[in-house]
Write a structure and sequence with these properties.
By secondary structure, the chain is of the alpha/beta class. Helices cover 36% and strands 12% of the residues. It has 14 helices and 14 strands. The strands form three sheets. The protein has an eight-stranded parallel barrel, surrounded by seven helices. Strands 1-2 form a two-stranded antiparallel sheet. Helix 1 (40-51) crosses helix 12, helix 3 packs parallel to helix 6 and helix 12 (356-375) crosses helix 13. The protein binds flavin mononucleotide.
Length: 432
Amino acid sequence: MSPMTAFEKLTLPNGSVIPNRIAKAAMEENMADADQAPSPELMRLYQSWADGEVGLIITGNVMVDGRAMTGPGGVVLEDDRHLDRFKRWAEIGRSKGAQIWLQINHPGRQMQANLGQKAFAPSAVALDLGKMSNRFAVPEALTDDGIADVIRRFARAAQLGEQAGFTGVEIHAAHGYLLSQFLSPLSNRRTDAWGGSLENRARLLLEIVKAVRAKVSPGFAVAVKLNSADFQRGGFSTEDARHVVEMLNHLGVDLVELSGGSYEAPAMQGQSRDGRTLAREAYFLEFARDIRTVAKMPLMVTGGIRRRAIADQVLGSGVDMVGIGTALAIDPHLPRDWRLGKDMVPELRPIRWTNKMLASLANMAVVKFQLRRLSRGGSPNPKVSPLGALILQQVAAAFRTRQYRRWIAQRPAAEASTIAASGADLPIAEAS
Ligand SMILES: Cc1cc2nc3c(=O)[nH]c(=O)nc-3n(C[C@H](O)[C@H](O)[C@H](O)COP(=O)(O)O)c2cc1C
């Protein structure tokens, strides 16, 4: 077999083709307009990635429930009210031949308390972020009806995504959000059919994949972003990840993207909390190699990839796609540069603050700073001061939070409670 290069196309199980092996990984933009729909700034940002010749564009996470937000300024897709704006977004993504997939997500307990919404999770287990824990509400355990509603919402969002012209969806089951909370025995303490054994913990993800597949056409891509591990003692393990991939093998999944970690243990930023060391670049490559042995669908690995040589090494080891976030925020034209033989290595200044949680927030803020610049037609500035970016991010978030609270307050009560009506008074069996 000849070694794979970044510029060979990939044919997915659904028959569709991705023109090269480089994907823009999901990065939450916090750029929704006053209707929590895609804004003109968001369109401008995505035009840069389309122009940069990335083969696959995965959007920042889009919420399947307007009351459950990963952050302020998040795009919400629950109905066809603003579908014209989603159509425009999809059109821009496809304008230079890339595929564009909507990443669909539900935060579960990883929702900031100041958004003013009740948080739901598999069990009433709060996030442990040390001194920052009180920024997140203690979640309530989802009822059976609540779970059924979540499944319907993912399927509906995927269906709307297809109507809007996206070429696929990626179901976010990584990074400690709702589906990842169900997968982890640390956050899922249920004793019913949705908790306990791995089969039960994976049930919600599997049911969502099936419900989505049933609603979209066979040529529409359905992908899953999964942790290769949570990197927390007692959490979702590599062994678990391998088994979940085996369970997904038979469900018509077109690609699995491997990442790792959560808010509590941000391995996706290269940090582990369970003593294991991650590679300095392509953090999850070893895990991907292991999962490759059982996966029947194409695999993508994301995290810490910024050099062409590393991308080639990942592809050479049997992984089908490389996912890139940070480096594509600094240089949205990276694939084109690489194709033209320019070996750019977009990098940020390392942040060596002793408070790891703040350092991780500052890192996110520095990346979001680049996204904001691109969305305004400016050029990125990777040398921005992390403290400055963090302060700016706080100011932007405060503005977006007020905007969101106005939006949610104006929603007709009937609409807001469609799902919540979901048997809120049914008793649920909890282990603890
Ligand atoms: C600002 C920012 C926002 C992110 N938002 C998302 C998201 O919405 N969904 C997701 O799956 N991952 C998200 N991630 C994680 C990235 O997809 C990726 O897994 C991570 O950044 C590691 O890749 P990188 O080293 O190439 O940046 C985000 C990362 C950053 C820096």
